[in-house]
């Protein structure tokens, strides 16, 4: 038998109102719905910005501080040919860092990641090296959602001292290649749960729309503003592509390779890396690479640099 006005929890409407009045009077509400939503956290960070120093550092800075004990990592500002159907140009400055007190290092073992931005330009083959087959290249960026399996006590896991930029680039290549290989045939259905990559953007790489598209490097730009000869390496045949990743989360950093130590005092050590978070990636994908670029002179070249904004307090 059901009593009128009584809920299934055994309380009447009057009892619920009385309990609500007691809660309002004696129990202080400490939060509200949506207090930790993404928008709310961004608003808090905006208000704290005058009191917290925003630091930054770039891939080119990381390349300058690389030592043989940290593996090989070439300066991304140096033009490099894309010599495969998929060229990995993923930023690394957001994944690695050093302890210190200057504007590009962090204090302690964590930092608050804000934003990552990458700028990319391309140079196309010139003259007789231009392929006769129309070129097709895509600039794709996003997240690798499968975190690194790093542990110093678990057998089969990657050891922390082995996590270098070269290793992480190889890891990203394996994850992204698997994603695109599964989608090679447009008639296939890929189960959604098997995706370990989240694509944020896909842009077709095009030459500039003016007459500079296929001109030679010597005649492309001429002298600089102050009359100095322009470095041919910084001449681009494509528009400037800008890629963005928004973080707004804390990164827990771990000690990686120990570094050179006292043998190279100008190189900070050890190299710190993030473990457990999503990893940004950017690639150049050329579906018809074997038909388009038989020789290195016919391959497109890429230059890039990334800037990572963070705070450590």
Please specify the SSE layout and strand pairing:
Layout: H1 13-26, H2 38-48, E1 55-58, H3 59-64, E2 80-81, E3 86-88, E4 96-97, E5 110-123, E6 138-144, H4 165-182, E7 197-204, E8 241-255, E9 272-274, E10 279-285, H5 289-292, E11 301-311
Antiparallel strand pairs: 1-11, 2-11, 3-10, 4-9, 5-8, 5-11, 6-7, 6-10, 8-9
Question: How does this model look, in words?
Answer:
It contains five helices and eleven strands; from the N terminus they run ααβαβββββαββββαβ. With 313 residues, the chain is α+β, with helices and mostly antiparallel strands. Strands 1, 2, 4, 5, 8, 9 and 11 form a seven-stranded antiparallel sheet that branches. The protein has a four-stranded antiparallel sheet with strand order 3-10-6-7. The protein starts with 12 loop residues before the first helix and ends with a strand. It has helices spanning 13-26, 38-48, 59-64, 165-182, 289-292, and strands at 55-58, 80-81, 86-88, 96-97, 110-123, 138-144, 197-204, 241-255, 272-274, 279-285, 301-311. It has one domain (55-311).
* Share of residues in helices: 10-25%
- Beta-strand percent range: 15-25%
Individual helix count: 5
User: Number of DSSP strands?
Assistant: 11
Please tell me the total number of domains. 1
Order of helix and strand elements from N to C terminus: HHEHEEEEEHEEEEHE
Task: Give Rg in angstroms.
Answer: 26 Å
What's the overall average pLDDT, rounded? 81
| Distance between the amino and carboxyl termini | 61 Å
Show unreliable segments: 211-223, 228-234
Major sheet: 7 strands, antiparallel
What general form does the structure show?
globular
Helix/strand/pairing class, anyone?
A: alpha+beta
